[in-house]
Amino acid sequence: xxxxxxxxxxxxxxxxxxxxxxxxxxxxxxxxxxxxxxxxxxxxxxxxxxxxxxxxxxxxxxxxxxxxxxxxxxxxxxxxxxxxxxxxxxxxxxxxxxxxxxxxxxxxxxxxxxxxxxxxxxxxxxxxxxxxxxxxxxxxxxxxxxxxxxxxxxxxxxxxxxxxxxxxxxxxxxxxxxxxxxxxxxxxxxxxxxxxxxxxxxxxxxxxxxxxxxxxxxxxxxxxxxxxxxxxxxxxxxxxxxxxxxxxxxxxxxxxxxxxxxxxxxxxxxxxxxxxxxxxxxxxxxxxxxxxxxxxxxxxxxxxxxxxxxxxxxxxxxxxxxxxxxxxxxxxxxxxxxxxxxxxxxxxxxxxxxxxxxxxxxxxxxxxxxxxxxxxxxxxxxxxxxxxxxxxxxxxxxxxxxxxxxxxxxxxxxx
Length: 415
What we know:
The protein has 15 helices and 14 strands. It is α/β, with parallel strands linked by helices. The chain folds into 2 domains: 189 residues, Nucleotidyltransferase, domain 5 (2-Layer Sandwich); 187 residues, ATPase, nucleotide binding domain (Nucleotidyltransferase, domain 5, 2-Layer Sandwich). The radius of gyration is 22 Å and the shape is globular. The strands form 2 sheets. An 8-stranded mixed beta sheet has the order 5-4-3-2-1-6-8-7, with helices on both faces. α10 packs across α11. The two termini are 28 Å apart. The C terminus is likely disordered. A hairpin with a 5-residue loop joins β9 and β10.
């Protein structure tokens, strides 16, 4: 079965094409288009083992980009025709208590629309893309793999807020967690590398423009740093992360900001970018800090402290760790940050080898002799997880109807 995994941004469309057949998994193509709807767009694509090609190409909307990419996949031989495509799968963000993996139906879209206030930067472009693919590929199965799906195993003590119970049951105000596909891949791959018995307790640290940490026991999520929305948990590139909600009335009263203005600032005008006075890219923050910027140094220290706080909590949750894994762009490419995070953790049996850490590339261990926890740097592969989930769903449900509940009925009910 050939599955196109679609990753949608407000002005971008990235994809990877897989062929999944039983235990056989092959990536047939990958690429993407950027600056959709604007000037200076670039389309990048590689098919099979061929080198990546890049060309200037402007697209007025996502629909035109999707159509062009499909034509190029046929021209390049990755697809015989668009009908050769078994499914399009989406690494969708917020669907409340919809099934972790679901066929895209009107009910699914309605539930995603219900949760737009909790994921205003994420759900709208995915909803739009799903509707576009419906038009472009009429009859092809569309599958939504929701990021909170991996965290369905969270115990109730980590799923609920200390608020009136009806908020959770009636409105879906609960902790869901995100980056599920990434944490799922890390859990799966770490077991493959170390063996199931040696990798029962894993702390997965996904650090990038959006960051989260997950405690995993025996392949199941036990705790995750994000809650109801992707705006919570660790400080993000331009999102505040954990924040005291009672600053809202203070800012309204003293700064004259209305609720929408504060939420917009917290969701896109805060985070490491605002605190450091840079773009929010960790490379820019580090450069500014090295040049003497106190604000950039504060942003780095705050980020590292938040990561260490969650590691400490999750060591308690798991009773220690067999493996601590760094992934995501920041986690993979910044040995100085990994060293800062892991320093002075010998009391917990965690010992970093500085030389191994500095040279760690791709998939590599960097723990020192005597460390009770394996320390890994590991590229994640969210798209592969989504492709596997879509293939499994379609294999089980061929010819069946999606049984997701409509948004109006039990939006907060656990299924």
